[in-house]
């Protein structure tokens, strides 16, 4: 027996629509990731400045994105 899961396939849609939808999703995801990376940079800088203002030692953690799995930007 074959079970039919998920949405029914709409055969009225053009065949390249799925490709276009996926492309748009990837673009949104990349844009969101870029915004998050920029926010990390800003917050790390703010953290460094606040630590200096409070005479706290620097964090012993390496900056995000510099480890073996980081993007290295």
Automatic annotation (TrEMBL):
<dbReference type="GO" id="GO:0003700">
    <property type="term" value="F:DNA-binding transcription factor activity"/>
</dbReference>
<dbReference type="InterPro" id="IPR046347">
    <property type="entry name" value="bZIP_sf"/>
</dbReference>
<feature type="region of interest" description="Disordered">
    <location>
        <begin position="53"/>
        <end position="73"/>
    </location>
</feature>
<protein>
    <recommendedName>
        <fullName>BZIP domain-containing protein</fullName>
    </recommendedName>
</protein>
């Amino acid at each position: 027996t074959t079970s039919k899961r998920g949405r029914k396939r709409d055969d009225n849609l053009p065949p390249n629509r799925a490709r276009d939808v996926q492309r748009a999703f990837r673009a949104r995801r990349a844009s969101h990731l870029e915004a998050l990376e920029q926010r990390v940079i800003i917050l790390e800088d703010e953290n460094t400045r606040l630590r200096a203002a409070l005479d706290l030692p620097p964090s012993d953690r390496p900056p995000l994105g510099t480890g073996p799995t980081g993007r290295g930007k």
